[in-house]
Each structure stands twice: as structure tokens, then as C-alpha cells.
Specification:
The protein is of the alpha/beta class. The chain folds into 2 domains: about 5-225, Rossmann fold (3-Layer(aba) Sandwich); about 230-439, Rossmann fold, CATH 3.40.50. It has 14 helices and 16 strands. The strands form 3 sheets. An 8-stranded mixed sheet has the order 9-10-12-11-13-14-15-16, sandwiched between helices. A 5-stranded parallel sheet has the order 2-1-6-7-8, with helices on both faces. α1 (about 5-15) packs parallel to α2 (about 35-45). The radius of gyration is 22 Å and the shape is globular.
Length: about 450
């Protein structure tokens, strides 16, 4: 045993990181077990603490075996060897990925609430977990941080197998720090006297304690960064389906129009990919509305998540809500659909009463709206990753059925989630240009 518990591990790890104390540091803990460790590091460095959200992708018939991981911002890391040996099909991978991304979005809302992530641009970021075994989660975390423009990444763990730096981390971190590197390593828990699961409440408590001491300025910085694109988002409640759902409305000064987002199955208004595209649209002077298509009770029924007609109806109701507000009723509207949300966007656009001016689909499944495609009148842009072969074929088939102005753009090198550097940014550029042209 090296550590009594995670707090003890965090204190021992913090002693190895004192050289960072005078740097512009942010500490990120991997939920859940990495956060109590990270809190001790953040306290030692007098630095703000945030979470780095990643989810393991388990092999379908052996969930404890990681075939990769996904993280905020559309980052995906895959273990090609496990995929090959496990004979995991692309459909199997997509199903697991969809489920884990939904859980990732839920955790973002649960841990942060309405708070912004701490800004990382140009800063030294210490990524902390309670130990490193396969390295898939830590690798995904480092790539998430790199995508958020950190100047330097330090991956720090209390315990990892001997040789872990070269074998597991490679060039994904600028520095790797570990307290103990045993030659005999079976599982992280073998080195802790108390390795009980960390409850969600403890994660939130760690973040709240740190924010009270160090975090106030970082929220202000995040809001200022968003303000550069227009106004900070306004939390709203939309009446849909006889109930209310949450939403975020952002209106830059003199907005040329407003885009309503239809997220993919299992996701929510907190989707990091849709939020990234929305920020790009805001910078281009376009308003955005991200909202939940279903109530919490409805979302618990998985059949609703794939009910294209139901989701399209919610999008239509949201468009009517926008049309009834004093600050948005004169704006042209557009729909942005991601994954299965693209089918809902196209289904809603095919309504004879729809007044939507343009539609954009990202990595979408327009084939799920096949029965209505010929009735869509709004100019439609289909964006697909160049390495997403199945979805490219589905989009080409759908494009052949569209009778409106349309275009298919394929982003070179991008996979389904556009996690490769620069690919999601390209989606934002294409979408902004399409909406601006047709608004």
C-alpha cells in the first residue's frame, strides 16, 4: 500500500509539483476518483480546479475492457489493437460511443451546473487522476486539453506501471509526473488502503470548495471570452410538449438571424460539439438557441430519443416560441441538426407552415427523414467527415431525394464526431457561411 486514500495520494502528488507554483496553472481532475486527488494539488498550487470529462469506451461484450475513450469537444481515442482482437464493428462502436457521450453531457451538467469551464487558453494545465492503468482515459484527457489551446500539459498521477511515460503517454503531455511506478501492477486499487468509489456529491463539493477560494476570476474570464462573440447566453425555459425544458439563448448585437439546434440521440443542450459550433455562429454575428428536445421524464424512455417525428415537433414548437419573443420575432431562423437531430431538423423544415430559411446537418442521419426529404424547401447543407464512410453514403442517398437547393461538404480527415484537430472548427465555418448567405 502506498496511499491511505485519495486525499493522502493527492498530498504526496502535490509535493512533486511544487515547481509549478508560480505558473499560470489550472488543475483538472478526472471524475470521479481523480477529483479528490486533484483538489489537494490545486490547494498546494493555489490554483483553480475544474473537471476534465472523459468516458471509457468498453467492448460491448466485455465492458471493463477499454477499446478507447471519448472526451469533451468531440475528442475520441481508440485502441486499434483491442478493436481488431475484439472484432468490434463500426456499428458496435457507434452504439457504445453514443451512450457514453450522453453520459458525458449529463455529468457536465451535474458537476458544473450553469458554470462555465475554467479557460485553458495559454495556461499550464495539470491533468490529474487517481492512477493510470491502460492510459486510454488519460490520453483522451490530454487531447481534450490540447484542443482547448493549453500552452503546456502536465499529466500527474499518484501511481502508474513502470515505463508508463513512453508506453502510455508519448507526446500527448509535455511533462509526466508520478509518485510511484511499481514493476508489478495489476490494478490501481491495489495501492490504496481505501479505494472506495467517489460519490458525485463529493466531486461537486471539491469543485465548490476550490471555487470559493480561487475560482471567481475564472468565471469572469470565461464570460468575457463569450462576450467577445456577443452577449453571454441567457438561460431560458421553453414550453414544449405541454411541459417546459431548459435552453440557452445567445443573441449578438444586430444578429442577422437565429439558429435552433437539434442535438443527437441521448445528448442535450450541453453537447460540447454543438456548443462549439454555436460559439462559431455567435462570432459570425448569428444568434443561437440550444435547448433540450425532451423533458427528463421523456428522455428516460429511449424510444422517444429516436422518435424523429416527435423531436421535429419539438423543434417546430421552439421555432414558434422564438417567433413570439420581442427580441427574436423579426429574425430569420435556421435549423442545425447533429447526428439523428439532423433528421428532426429536416422533418420540421418539411412542414408546409415552416418558415425556416436554411438547414445545416453535421454528421447527420437525414435518411431517418427519408419520407419527408422531397418536401423540404429550405436550402440545406450536409456536412460529413471524410472518414465517416457509412454516413457519407447515407447523406449522398438523402441528397438525391432533396428537391431544394442543397450541397454536400465532406471535411477531409474527419471521423463521425469531428474530433480531429481543426475539423470541428471547419464545421463552424461552413455552417456560419451557409446561414449568413441564406439569411
Amino acid at each position: 500500500m502506498y496511499f491511505t486514500d485519495r486525499i493522502d495520494a493527492g498530498r504526496q502528488l502535490a509535493a512533486r509539483l511544487t515547481h509549478l507554483k508560480d505558473s499560470d496553472v489550472v488543475v483538472l481532475g478526472l471524475p470521479r476518483g481523480g477529483v479528490p486527488v486533484a483538489e489537494q494539488v490545486a490547494e498546494s498550487l493555489a490554483a483553480p480546479l475544474d473537471i476534465c470529462l472523459v468516458r471509457k469506451l468498453g467492448v460491448p461484450y466485455q465492458p471493463e475492457l477499454a477499446m478507447g475513450a471519448v472526451g469533451e469537444g468531440g475528442v475520441r481515442v481508440l485502441n486499434d489493437d483491442v478493436l481488431s482482437r475484439g472484432r468490434v464493428t463500426s456499428r458496435d462502436l457507434a452504439a457504445v460511443e453514443e451512450r457514453e457521450l450522453a453520459l458525458l453531457d449529463e455529468r457536465a451538467a451535474r458537476y458544473r451546473g450553469a458554470r462555465h469551464p475554467v479557460p485553458l487558453r495559454g495556461r499550464t494545465v495539470v491533468v490529474v487522476d487517481d492512477g493510470l492503468a491502460t492510459g486510454a482515459t488519460a490520453l483522451a484527457a490530454c487531447r481534450v486539453v490540447r484542443a482547448r489551446d493549453a500552452a503546456r500539459i502536465v499529466l500527474a498521477v499518484p501511481v502508474a506501471p513502470a515505463g508508463w511515460r513512453a508506453e502510455r503517454v508519448g507526446n500527448n503531455a509535455d511533462e509526466a509526473v508520478c509518485v510511484h511506478e511499481p514493476a508489478f501492477f495489476q490494478a490501481i486499487g491495489q495501492f490504496y488502503l481505501d479505494f472506495s468509489q467517489t460519490p458525485d456529491e463529493d466531486v461537486v463539493a471539491c469543485l465548490d470548495r476550490n471555487r470559493a477560494a480561487y475560482g471567481a476570476g475564472d468565471d469572469a474570464a470565461a464570460q468575457a471570452a463569450e462576450g467577445a462573440a456577443g452577449l453571454p447566453p441567457t438561460e431560458v425555459r421553453l414550453p414544449v410538449g405541454g411541459a417546459e425544458v431548459g435552453g440557452e439563448l445567445t443573441l449578438p448585437p444586430k444578429a442577422a438571424g437565429i439558429v435552433l439546434f437539434a442535438h443527437g440521440s441521448g445528448s442535450s443542450r450541453h453537447s460540447p460539439r454543438n456548443r462549439a459550433v454555436a460559439a462559431a455562429l455567435n462570432r459570425a454575428g448569428l444568434g443561437t438557441l440550444l435547448f433540450d428536445l425532451l423533458t427528463d421524464a421523456e428522455a428516460a424512455n429511449r424510444a422517444n430519443v429516436f422518435d424523429t417525428e416527435l423531436l421535429a415537433g419539438r423543434l417546430t414548437e421552439a421555432a414558434a416560441w422564438v417567433g413570439g419573443r420581442e427580441d427574436t420575432r423579426r429574425l430569420r431562423t435556421g435549423f442545425f441538426g447533429a447526428s439523428t437531430g439532423a433528421a428532426a431538423a429536416l422533418w420540421a423544415a418539411a412542414d408546409p407552415a415552416a418558415t425556416v430559411s436554411a438547414v445545416v446537418s453535421r454528421g447527420g442521419r437525414p435518411d431517418l427523414a427519408e419520407a419527408r426529404l422531397a418536401e423540404v424547401r429550405a436550402p440545406t447543407l450536409l456536412i460529413v467527415g471524410g472518414r465517416d464512410d457509412l454516413v457519407i453514403d447515407l447523406n449522398r442517398g438523402a441528397q438525391a431525394r432533396l428537391r431544394c437547393e442543397n450541397r454536400l461538404d465532406i471535411v477531409p480527415g474527419a471521423t463521425h464526431l469531428f474530433e480531429e484537430p481543426g475539423t470541428l472548427e471547419r464545421v463552424g465555418e461552413l455552417a456560419a457561411d451557409w446561414f449568413a448567405e441564406h439569411f
